[in-house]
Amino acid sequence: MSAFRFDDWDDRPATPVAAPAAPAVASASAPQAAAPRPALAPVNPMDKRVVNGHADINQLAPFRYPWAWEFFLNANKNHWTPLEISMAQDVHDYHHKLTPAERHVFENVLAYLTTSDILAMRNIGLAVMEKMSAPELQIYQARQVYEEALHTWTYQHCIESLGLDQQEIYNRYRVVPEIHGKIALANRRLERVMRSDFDMTNRDNLHEFALSYLFFAGIFEGCWFYNGFTPIFALQRRGLMKGAAEQLQYIMRDEVLHCAFGIRVVRQLLQEENLTLDPLRLRELWDEAEAAEAAYAGYILREPILGYSAALHVNQFHFIANRRARQLGLDEPFPGAQNVLPWLDEQANLRKEKNFFETRVTEYQTGGALSWE
Ligand SMILES: [Fe+2]
Ligand SMILES: [Fe+2]
């Protein structure tokens, strides 16, 4: 295949386009140019709002939400491409070292992730970003859209490297009800707020939007992704599938920021709009997320693997869900849940992990230290 050339357009006109004619000299009878428009009033940052704001959406500063700009700067410190991480040992591990139960776990985690990251991209890019009325919020979300696409590329790269059947892996969520359940639940949340006639000045719609963003940031990304990589990390801790696990560690760093940013936006939205979330709707949200996650865990871990089981997965979901609720300023949905996987938070810190396992040491963080939680 020939190398891609960045400046190889073939849609140039066959004949040179004539240079535009010089403007005619104004005659005495030509209309006079319009008077210069008076300068617009400077942007007052306090006119900015998360939604329904009045400030110029095309003017970044002065900031109302300087923390959003900080998120954007921090996001740019975690930069990699999946091609930079060797998958060679994973190919051997997958075909020669994993047990059938471990292969089942690995493939189904991957199958879930392939679909869910596309969904995450559509949610933030199509349902959320267009409703924001402060550019500093949109700028970070634009980066997030790119990162979700990068995550999808990463899964595709893993599938290609391991020689898995693409059609079968991508189609799995359609045929496995326990995977489909999580995707369907998220799709329902997305579709409720993505309608073209969704009026954000309506209080019920605002409440629906806040719940939806809370679901995607706090649960979909904050629990399902955060906790969802752990079966692969459990293999990594035993020296298996280390390339794929390292890819997921980079993704996890992005997801921790997506979750933290989304929670911050939701809190700001609730405060600005003087909105209180309906406790019954919240309870429903936690319960349906728990039911979907428990069914998923029961399927991917129908047989436990060394150091990991469906019960551990669900317990950890409860523990992380409580953390997200506290960060949202809400009551813990699963009081008394224990931290059954204390190594998971360390796993989110890539640098510590890489030193511990002495894998290929390449630090892609290009700026100062990142704070994860
Ligand atoms: Fe993602
Ligand atoms: Fe994300």
CATH C-level class: Mainly Alpha
| Backbone structural class | mainly alpha
CATH architecture: Orthogonal Bundle
Secondary-structure element order, N to C = HHHHHHHHHHHHH
CATH fold label? Ribonucleotide Reductase, subunit A
Bound molecules: fe (ii) ion
Task: Determine Rg (CA atoms, Å).
Answer: 24 Å
How many E strands?
0
Tally of contiguous helical segments: 13
Say what oligomer this is: single chain
Number of domains: 1
Rounded average pLDDT: 88
Helical content class: 55-70%
Kindly report how far apart the N and C termini lie.
45 Å
Major sheet size, sense and barrel closure: none
Global geometry: globular
Give the uncertain stretches in residue-range form. Answer: 24-28, 352-373
Strand content: under 5%
The CATH homologous superfamily name equals: Ribonucleotide Reductase, subunit A
Description:
It holds the Pfam family Ribonuc_red_sm. Belongs to the ribonucleoside diphosphate reductase small chain family. The active site is at residue 155. It comes from Pseudothauera lacus. Its cofactor is Fe cation. By secondary structure, the protein is an all-alpha fold. The protein has one domain (87-357): Ribonucleotide Reductase, subunit A (Orthogonal Bundle), CATH 1.10.620.20. Helices cover 60% and strands 0% of the residues. It has 13 helices and no strands. Helix 1 (66-75) runs parallel beside helix 4, helix 7 runs antiparallel to helix 9 and helix 10 runs antiparallel to helix 11 (310-327). The protein is globular and about 80 Å long. Mean pLDDT is 88; it is low at 24-28 and 352-373. The chain binds fe (ii) ion (FE2) (2 copies).
